[in-house]
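Final report, Chapter 2: Outcomes

The project's central promise was a pipeline that accepts a single protein chain and returns its three-dimensional structure in a standardized token representation, suitable for archiving and comparison. That pipeline is now operational. To close this chapter, we reproduce one record exactly as it appears in the project archive, with the input sequence first and the structure output second.
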Amino acid sequence: MDRKTPVRASKIGPKLTVKCGSCGKPLGNPLTHACITRTDFKKRKREAEKPKPKPAPSGNAHEYTACDDDDCHRFPCKVYKEGFGDGRERGFGDGYASGYASGFTEGMASCPGPHSG
């Protein structure tokens, strides 16, 4: 109690800090250092799971079967008209108007398969 605490001399010297080359964190013990690379994987995964909004319909949206414009630039209209034209060229005619509505009198009996009549 009567004794005075000894006065210690302060040490002034250069401080050396070593940083990891890949992650940039201070490197205390190189044997126990583990680099942790932060990624945005979870954020990108959450964004990918969100439903994407449907684009707004364009001003000239219409049903491809009802399109009367022969120069229509929409893909469904072009394909429908091309297929419809091919069917007429091959002799399928108008289908319903050319006798399909009247029916087939022999029906299943004319089928050569095992389920014939």
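Archive annotation: Residues 75-89 form the longest helix (15 residues).
This record, like all others produced under the grant, will remain available to the consortium after the project formally closes.
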